[in-house]
Amino acid sequence: MKKSLLASALAALTLAAVPAAQASTTSSFLLSPAPAPTDMPSPTDMTSPTDMPTSTDMASPGASASPVGPGCASLPTSGPGSAASMATEPVGTALAANPELSTLTKAVDAAGLTETLNSAKDVTVFAPTNAAFDKLPKETLDKLMGDKEQLTKVLQNHVVEGRKAPADLTTAPLTTLGGGSLTVTGSGEDLTVGEAKVLCGNLQTSNATVYLIDSVLVPGAESSATPSESAS
To answer: Among the entry's GO cellular component annotations, what is one (predicted)?
Structure first.
């Protein structure tokens, strides 16, 4: 009888020990820290601040500028002469691609200023259209084209330092590279340089801001060119 009771007691202790052991194992698992993932990127694998785009990688303010003026609608919408195409080229090359500026291009070539314009840094160019040159008598224009010194002076009177947005033009008289002075009046879509109307302006090239104008500007004066002034 005693042996039977002892056997029953030992069996009961054995059965009680099994759940306790399992509970101990479960508790140990829950309390143990989870192993760190091995596939997480290390700090050196993550993008550092130096990988972020810098200000020089972003488009310049000039690139997003909108052309202004009543003649902007006549610009090609794509290809050579368009605003988008001009923005990728230096100013001398950009002007040459516009068929409305072929006379100006010939004048720039005759004066040997194409590379000078292309290598200039941040300038504003007032570009007379073919119609602007057509206001001059043919003999006057021919004489000007044949006089490199005078032609250079005339062309330099159409260039000022700095990339001028429309709002910058009317703050003070502008000093040209030729030493002349230009006053711009008006605002918005209605701008006048001396007596020359801006047809389409705030056009961006890779190194300049361009304003297409309807008259040739005279060195040392704030008026459009007349036959007598151009021939002198």
So the answer is: extracellular matrix
Helix, coil or strand: residue 127: strand
Residue 49 belongs to a domain: no
CATH number at residue 185: 2.30.180.10
pLDDT tens digits, 122-139: 999 999 999 999 999 999
Model pLDDT for residues 2-61, shown as the tens digit of each residue: 445 445 544 544 444 444 444 444 444 333 444 555 555 454 444 444 444 343 333 344
pTM for this entry: 0.70
Indicate the number of domains in the chain. 1
Provide the token pair at 110: 């005759």
Alpha helices in 97-211 (DSSP H): 102-110, 114-119, 130-134, 138-145, 148-156, 166-169
CB atoms within 10 A of CB 22: 10
